[in-house]
Amino acid sequence: MRLIDADHMKEELLWGNVFLSAIQTNTLVDLIDNQPTIDPESLRSKGHWERPSKLLNIVNCTACKTTFPGDFDEFRYCPNCGCFMENKNGGSYVKK
Ligand SMILES: [Zn+2]
């Protein structure tokens, strides 16, 4: 999927070098306006923190498998790959 600027596309249709009839232009503008808006955050990959050992104070990102010091499990995003950290129930990760 590629995110595009719908407003810019409408400007190009209305004022750019696109030669369409008024009906065709209005149809395309309506089509663009009726498309769903996607939250870019929904495209971000997701993971969670896991503790591989009870003896070592470390956590791993399940998405990129990078190991961090144990207190990194308070981070909502992995500093290495940027994925959003969910808790086991699917919500955002918040340390107790
Ligand atoms: Zn990661």
Please describe what this structure looks like.
Strand 3 and strand 4 form a beta hairpin. This protein has helices spanning 6-15, 22-33, and strands spanning 46-47, 49-50, 58-61, 67-69, 84-85. The mean pLDDT is 89. The strands form two sheets. Strands 2-3-4 form a three-stranded antiparallel beta sheet, with no helix packed on it. The chain is of the alpha+beta class. The radius of gyration is 22 Å and the shape is rod-shaped. The protein starts with 5 loop residues before the first helix and ends in an 11-residue tail after the last strand. It has two domains: 6-41, no CATH class; 44-85, no CATH class. The longest helix has 12 residues, at 22-33. Helix 1 packs antiparallel against helix 2 (22-33). The structure holds zinc ion. The site of zinc ion has 9 residues, from loops. Zinc ion (ZN) binds at residues 47, 61, 63-64, 66, 78, 80-81, 83.
